[in-house]
Write a structure and sequence with these properties.
about 150 residues, mainly beta, Jelly Rolls, six-stranded antiparallel β-sheet
Length: about 150
């Protein structure tokens, strides 16, 4: 048995800045507790930061831990892998304690919705099958009508 704590900034890791709109960092909790069935992160979004448009090959669970954030779900139009039209079909406000399940292959974005406050959540990425790799595809987009390229 291993344990870790989500509080504080010890063991924080910077994230790929191309995947976020502003400053974001995380703690990789699954490494600390030696989890093999899922990847678990505590993600901290600075004021107004959010993820770029993305989807996962496995399910994801978000648990809001601080501040106010949002999850936005998009529908994709067209068959091109890199350049396609999008339309926002749902926006869910995330408050501390909220839990949301995102099915695999769902095109979405999440993060802080307030330019004056931070937001954080725990992300649990559930492996699609035993001993498989969890994959995320990231896109540049305008968050309104189009995705322009894979990052």
């Amino acid at each position: 048995m291993e344990k870790t704590n989500i509080q504080g900034t010890n063991n924080k890791r910077n994230v790929n800045p191309e995947w976020f709109t502003s400053k974001t960092w995380m703690k990789v909790l699954s490494e600390k507790i030696k989890s093999v069935d899922q990847d678990i992160y505590h993600v901290h979004f600075e004021k107004g930061s959010r993820t770029k448009l993305h989807s996962h090959n496995g399910n994801q669970v978000l648990i809001a831990t601080k501040g106010k954030g949002s999850l936005e779900i998009f529908k994709r139009y067209g068959t091109s892998k890199n350049d396609f039209k999008i339309k926002k079909i749902q926006r869910i406000t995330l408050n501390e304690g909220d839990v949301v399940h995102i099915p695999s292959k769902t095109l979405h974005t999440h993060g802080s919705i307030d330019n004056k406050k931070t937001f954080s959540h725990i992300a649990i990425n559930i492996l699609p099958k035993k001993n498989s790799e969890y994959k995320t595809i990231w896109w540049e987009s305008d968050y309104k009508s189009k995705a322009t390229r894979i990052i």
